[in-house]
Design a protein that fits this description.
Number of helices: 6
Structural class: mainly alpha
Radius of gyration: 16 Å
Order of helices and strands: HHHHHH
Distance between the termini: 55 Å
Number of strands: 0
CATH topology: Ferritin
Shape: elongated
Largest sheet: none
CATH superfamily: TspO/MBR protein
Number of domains: 1
Length: 154
Amino acid sequence: MSKSNALILLAFVVFTVAGGSFIGYFSIPGAWYAALNKPVFNPPNWIFGPVWTVLYILIGIAGARVWLNHRQSPLPKLWFAQMALNFAWPLVFFTAQRPDLALPVLIAMLIAILAFIALAWRRDRPAALMFIPYAAWVSFAGLLNGAIWWLNRG
């Protein structure tokens, strides 16, 4: 790997991990979230940090791969679109305290993730594979978001 490519890889990983951490800092769940009714399958709060850190590393590596190898394709645009939605979701859910509005953001994010996987599958299989755990986690998050909204509506 050239020095230039290594720097791009590092930049993508730092962007995703630091960006996710920064957004997390400004959208700490707090007392509002603690007081919500949650479904029985709601995981403990401590699990989210480690899971997102691993996912952000994979997302960053996949982003660097498509930036370096498929810059003229729609893949980088899909990557940045899902990243914008990823960073928007906690601000809508936790900061604005709007699980109802956060759900469409999450659905749009999942669509972008699945489109990325589908498009990358033939062009950059490793990048597509790195997004599969992300798609699974966001699917679970969508179920959780929907259940929290349903249990606390009205």
